[in-house]
Amino acid sequence: MNSEPRLALSEPVGDEIAKTTCYMCACRCGIDVHLKDGKVRYIEGNRDHPINKGVLCAKGSAGIMQHYSPARLRAPLLRTGPRGSGEFREISWDEALKLAVDWLQPIRDTAPQKLAFFTGRDQSQALTSFWAQNFGTPNYAAHGGFCSVNMAAAGIYTIGGAFWEFGAPDWDKTKLFVLFGVAEDHDSNPIKIGISKLKKRGARFVSVNPVRTGYSAIADNWIGIRPGTDGLLVLSIIHELFRTGKIDLDYLARYTNAPWLVIDNEGHEDHGLFLRDDLGKALVRDQKTGAVVRFDEPGHIADLNAEFTTADGPKVRSVLRLMAEKYLDPKYAPEAVAAETGVSATTISGLASEIARVAFEEEIIVEQPWVDMKGEQHNVMIGRPVSFHAMRGISAHSNGFQSARALHVLQTIIGSIDCPGGYRYKPPYPKPATAHPRPHGRSEHVTPGKPLAGPHLGYPLGPEDLLVDAEGKPQRIDKAFSWEAPLSAHGMMHMVIANAHAGDPYPIDVLFLYMANMAWNSSMNTRGTIKMLEERDEATGEYKIPKIIYSDAYSSEMVAYADLVLPDTTYLERHDCISLLDRPISEPGAVCDAIRWPVIKPDRDVRGFQSVLIDLGARLKLPGFVNEDGEALYKDYADYIANHQRKPGIGPLSGWRGAQADSEGRGAPNQDQIQNYIDNGAFWTKHIPQEALYFKHHNAAYQQFAIDMGFFDTPQPVTIQLYVETLQKFRLSAEGIRKPFAPSQYKQRLLECFDPLPDWYRPFEEQGVDTTEFPYHAITQRPMAMYHSWGSQNAWLRQIHTKNPLYVPGVICDEIGLSDGDWAWIISHHGRIKCEIARTDAVNGKTMWTWNAIGKRGGAWALEPNSPEATKGFLLNHLIHELLPPKSDGMRWSNSDPITGQAAWYDLRVRIEKAEIGEGFSEPHFKAIKRPGSQKEPPEEVRYGQEWAK
Predict the structure, then answer these.
(1) Residue 936: its pLDDT value, please?
(2) Shortest CA distance to 108 belongs to which of 614, 447, 453?
(3) CA dihedral 416, 422, 426, 431 (to 10 degrees)
């Protein structure tokens, strides 16, 4: 930490400052919490913190009112009335934990798969997955399946990293920054800091987004694309770069599979796969000698344009040759895609030209010698100063995986992956897909009373890694890693309730959720989901989902549908671990991790969920949570953080390891480790050596650094996969020429969507509905002042947003006679909602949008039934079904990306009709929920320091 005296930004407002980590969004910024008389008085940014460097947004500052929210749960709750009634009685923790064990123990002993354990936007998945694995259930995942798995999976399979937590633009050196589909919540403070650097240096910022808000509003150029066509736009840019020869051939030959040889052997099981030697190494042709050699053999110059017939018979072609043949097709020309994307041909060709100009005419040379993984010495680091960033706007479509892949291919062909000025990996990435585990969950992996045979989640390398039985039937409750969603690396949380309700592929006994508001904004088809949670079996009278355990800090809508509620603390009252085993806060130039710690003690009978989970693990005698004598290994989560070892020397935190706190990355447990973090501002940083800063995927110094830090035990260089062989294996299975064969109902989708080179197809809902009946798109954005559901209970943030209108393009308003403040019916193939509208012209002309998660159910979150959130706020979720419209064959597919299972929230098609105002209530309107337990009635006006908040 910087020990130099600093100019104070304000007068002290407390008698103590506790440094910890914010949790008002997923940025994980460092904060200084000012305390006085045992109360939080003020929160500001920690200027020494590697993520936000003192910058703090409205959400972070308003953490005071999150902590003192009247919606905080006060004690464990047992349901006494019907689900949804909000009728509970408060019970002791002993009774709550005994009841949980009584429900869970028989499942573990007889059929572990009958527990479905899914977590929401928590940041402790290294622990929750470890617990679920030791319980033995195959049914575990977190929220990524309905958030951004397309971004993560497309990145890992292509470049060994991804955007946001896995990588970031080189803000200090980039000269052209192009942002795709990013709203205002993800990574907001780092992006704001980064954009300010661009503006100061005069670098150009282009935003591609249907909606011009937030970052897009301050972009130098805004491209108002039609939703779901980002991938087509990117492929058109790739077309232009190939057409004009503006690709980095040296980079492609050295660091990608562009020269790898692909077998052209139609009708045979090796068709479209890489030519390999007896050791499985991919082969290339040496341009100098014409010999076929291993791709990583030193001394050769790879032939990027190879095409020949091998001595054994099959014809082979290089990946780059296949790419040129595909992307030079006139169907990708700007003139051909302009109408589909809503972006003019001039704009597309202009953006492609600017990308090429900056990449190749403004290259950056960093005078830093380095050695690559072939042992070749480089005297300088060459940078292509064009960088990209993307998030949910690309991800949340049924074509999102291929669109995200296309963007990574675009970065790669101009040579801007992990170079000065380009995209940069964040440690512990890059990691190739082959360095990740395969998923576990088949019947042979599940044994009553034993841990699962391996981790739940992973990266399949072919159909043989799917979690299906001999008939091809899914073996997870969410159907992740099945033929329906083979590469679902984050699971499919949005399908859990629907599948459990239907008993498909099998019924479950207990649904265990943490911080996942599945009865409201975290589900598609919200009204239908509520009905599923309430519905009983006609024969037995039991609920279709027999038991639901839920943990949250606040009285969300989901609390009312739980049978047992385990109340969590606020983020200022507990320990958390932002770990390299999970979702670290690393920066491109440094390895970083962090903690939260209780800067204030709870005044309610609540416990941190992580500590509760550890207690449950001990009570259930789960391996990893008890010793050989059956005694608890850990007192609580803090004890676990300090003493747990995933393997010898590797634990949740990387700083101050070893008995003397003198090791980093690897080392024995240190009993003072958490205090070491607290003393350092609640974070740890280890800077990457200068010679290892760039080209991490092929940099020998970085690979050794990664081994020293414990990221892996042997070098794991990444050869960027422009052509993903894994996808071709699924196509061969669909063709019936490579085992295991795909079931007949999946063949067409696999053939159409699993192109090993990035492709584009229309989103499935757009294909399945009459677009003349539903001519418009409807999407949501996250507001900068709110994060998912949490913000609407916050008295300060509610002064910014208390309701959400539907923003409608002026051209649509004029067509049907709408003005600001009018009400309208929005109708999809699935349902209809009524909401207030606001006119806007800062949007794609075929797209209407709203802020997400502002609308609430009355009574939830301690809101009055007549609060604006409940009367004028609304959800688009009511219009979105978890299943696609029926097809002629009667099949109803999940409304997801067919490759990863990513929930396709943004594929929604609608029409709009003017409505009479009536009572001025948004519809559908639900009966208010009772406040659970002894949760106090909030005053009409919530102020800091009121007696009820103590």
Answers:
(1) 66
(2) 447
(3) 0
